[in-house]
Design a protein that fits this description.
- By secondary structure, this protein is an alpha+beta fold.
- The chain contains eight helices and six strands, in the order βαββαβαααααββα.
- The strands form two sheets. It has a four-stranded antiparallel sheet, with helices on one face.
- β5 and β6 form a beta hairpin.
- α3 packs antiparallel against α4.
- The longest helix has 23 residues.
- It is elongated and about 70 Å long.
Length: 239
């Protein structure tokens, strides 16, 4: 169990405490919340807590409140040591292995069929993890995506865009519109990721939702970049 302590500025009454508790509990990763009305001292606990930037966003969206970053501390010292690409790598290997087996069962490997199958699996699996905690994902996604930063609703819509693309690649694998939409979506996503990595922002990657502590890095750029290239290639060869 991880415990994090910080101070919230702007608390004036028990109504403020109630509002903040409700907002913090809305993130399913936060299991326990304790707020002192007089000092603003706050303690939250959970198996894997969200990044402090996500917590600050939740607090600020709850009203005229602000996290005092200077007092933030982690009982576990730092979660950086627990950050891992293992979930992302495993998902990628499962998708790669599964789609290669589909090609093997047909008796012939065809790039034209393998790529749509991989894209379908990618979007269906990744949307599933995002939908497990859509509110938490939307909050995390707004920290770095260029659209979600300005339009919060996009974070709630995005998992359904991925779900729709996954279904589209199953039903309409050779459709130009599907490839074009995918290329646009992945390009926009890639821009936000590149900006965050180049700015060296300590932001948690939300590509697999909020259930895993994935760091934002060049690995995320490669992931989005490969999907963009595949969508562009399928668009080009389908024309």
């Amino acid at each position: 169990m991880e415990t994090r302590e910080f101070k919230i500025e702007g608390i004036t009454c028990m109504g403020c405490v109630s509002t903040l508790e409700k907002a913090l509990y809305s993130n399913t990763a936060i299991e326990q919340v304790s707020i002192d009305k007089e000092s603003g001292s706050t303690k939250i606990s959970g198996t894997t807590l969200p990044h402090q930037d996500i917590i600050a966003t939740i607090v600020s969206q709850a009203g005229n409140y602000e996290v005092n970053g200077a007092t933030i501390s982690d009982s576990s010292a730092s979660k950086k040591s627990n950050r891992s690409y293992k979930p992302l790598i495993l998902v990628g290997l499962y998708l790669l292995g599964g789609t290669l087996l589909i090609e093997y069962s047909s008796g012939m490997f065809l790039l034209d069929t393998w790529m749509p199958n991989f894209m379908a699996g990618f979007f269906l699996v990744f949307s599933f993890f995002k939908l497990l905690d859509i509110k938490g994902f939307a909050s995390a996604y707004s920290m770095y995506d260029v659209i979600a930063k300005r339009w919060k609703a996009y974070g709630y819509i995005y998992p359904f865009i991925e779900l729709g693309l996954g279904i589209a690649y199953i039903l309409y694998s050779d459709n130009l519109v599907t490839h074009l939409i995918t290329a646009i979506v992945m390009f926009v996503s890639l821009v936000g990721v590149v900006q965050s990595v180049l700015n060296k922002n300590e932001i948690k990657c939300a590509c697999l939702g909020t259930g895993f502590n994935l760091p934002m890095s060049y690995v995320t750029i490669i992931e989005d970049g490969l999907m963009l290239l595949m969508a562009a290639a399928m668009y080009y060869f389908t024309r």
